[in-house]
Amino acid sequence: MTKKADGNGPQKTDIKVSLIGGHRLKGETLHQRTLTASLIGGADVDLSDIEIPDGAELRITKLSLLGGVSLKVRPDVRVEVHGIRLGGVNDAGPSKPGGPTVRIDAWGLIGGVTVKRG
Question: Burial code of 82-114, b = ≥16 C-beta within 10 A, e = fewer?
Fold first, then answer.
C-alpha cells in the first residue's frame, strides 16, 4: 500500500479498466481504494507482502459481467465481502472487528470471491 491519505484531502483511487481480460494487482502498487472493471475477466489481488495497519481499511471494487476475485492476504487480515454476484465467498479467516480490513465490493453476473491466507 502506497501513499496514505493524510485526512486533509481525498483518498487516491487506482482505476484499472479492460474489455476482455482480468487484472493482476500487487499490494505495494495499490492505494487505499482500487476500482477494477472489465466485461469478461477477474481480478487476482496479492496483498500478502504488505503491512496494513490495525484499524485501516483497504477497499477493492470489482465490476464485471463474468469474472470473480481471487484475494491473497496474511492470516490476521479481516476480509469483508459486499455486492451482488452469482458465486459464493470462500473465506475461513478472522471475522472479529478490529485489526486490518480489506473490503471487497464485487458486482457482477457470474464470479465468486476466493480468499487465500498465508
Answer: eeebebebebeebeeeeebbbebbbebeebbbb
Task: Kindly provide the residue ranges of all beta strands, DSSP E only, lying in 1-118, ordered along the sequence.
Answer: 13-20, 23-26, 33-40, 43-46, 57-66, 69-73, 78-82, 89-90, 101-110, 113-117
Give the torsion through C-alpha atoms of 22, 37, 10, 33, to 10 deg: -40
CB 73 within 8 A of CB 47: yes
Predicted confidence (pLDDT) per residue in 63-90, tens digit: 999 999 999 998 889 999 999 888 888 8
Q: Provide the whole-model pTM.
A: 0.82
Cβ neighbours, 10 Å, residue 74: 15
Residue type, 105: D
Which phi and psi (to 5°) does residue 114 adopt?
A: -115, 125
Q: Given the C-alpha cell 500500500, which residue does it identify?
A: 1
